[in-house]
Amino acid sequence: MKESIFFKLVFALTIIFCSAFLCFCEDDESYARKREKMVRAQLKTRDITDKQVLEVMGKVPRHLFVSPHLRRQAYRDSPLPIDEGQTISQPYIVALMTQHLELKGGEKVLEIGTGSGYQAAVLAHLTDKVYSIEIRENLAKKAAETLSTLNYSQVQVKWSDGYFGWEEHAPFDAIIVTCAANHVPPPLLKQLKEGGRFIIPLGSTLYFQTLTLITKKKGKPKVKQILGVTFVPMVGEVQKKTGK
Ligand code: SAH
């Protein structure tokens, strides 16, 4: 009698374990399908043409950078809320900004505004030195944890005001600012290498900005406007200065 209860229990536990495992695999597979669809429908149909960027966008598990209750929406054509009233950018904007950096591998990249860590993870597939600064302590901690759990050891996260850059690791081949500023922080421009690429949403931090690409040629910035965008504002030192 006791033996039969034991076997029933083992049988029930095996069924529960197998169903949970199957569910987990199915889930992973369904996210991979959503990611593939995102690349096809949101990136290839627009102006994302860089093969490597498309490949990376099809690899990084964006759903693991948002709260569990938002995972199913992670591959939508829109930004999503993360903690502290901040946002993870729309996949297209992440791909577009990354494409403009023209990374070939081996570059040193600085990101201002770590947020969830998703953009940093995308960059980490294209180069092995990514430095990311986040001004909100909790976000910096959480992003560092997520990146470490997913084995993105190429990314270093620092809790600090990104306005001042990361002098210790400067100069950078590329700089990407993922929060809106009304002027280019001079320390960042200074930390950009000659020939380097710098992308930043510039304009009114309350309303709209223009995604702006700056390249440094013979020490002077060359500016190109890319697209109208809306990012969460850069805070800290940038709000005290006008940049003039
Ligand atoms: N790149 C992020 C999204 C960024 S949202 C991702 O992939 O998820 C913009 C982030 O910039 C927010 O997390 C905000 O806290 C941060 N931020 C705002 N001002 C900043 C500053 N001065 N220095 C560093 N980070 C800043």
Description of the structure:
Helix 4 (118-124) links the parallel strand 3 (108-112) and strand 4 (129-134). It is elongated, with a radius of gyration of 21 Å. The chain has a single domain (43-242), classed as Rossmann fold. The chain is of the alpha/beta class. A 7-stranded mixed beta sheet has the order 5-4-3-6-7-8-9. It contains 6 helices and 9 strands. The termini are far apart. 35% of the residues lie in helices and 23% in strands. The chain binds S-adenosyl-L-homocysteine. The site of S-adenosyl-L-homocysteine (SAH) has 25 residues, from strand 2, helix 4 and strand 4.
CATH level 1 class label: Alpha Beta
Write down the domain tally. Answer: 1
**At CATH's second level, what is the architecture?**
3-Layer(aba) Sandwich
- Determine the oligomeric state from the structure: single chain
Mean pLDDT: 92
Q: For the terminal residues, how far apart are their CA atoms?
A: 86 Å
Biggest beta-sheet profile: 7 strands, mixed
DSSP strand (E) fraction? 15-25%
- What is the helix content? 25-40%
Catalogue the unreliable spans: 18-26
What's the helix count?
Answer: 6
Spatial extent as radius of gyration: 21 Å
Shape descriptor reads: elongated
Order of helices and strands: HHEEHEHEHEEHEEE
Spatial strand arrangement across the major sheet: 5-4-3-6-7-8-9
CATH superfamily: Vaccinia Virus protein VP39
User: What structural class do the secondary elements suggest?
Assistant: alpha/beta
How many strand units? Answer: 9
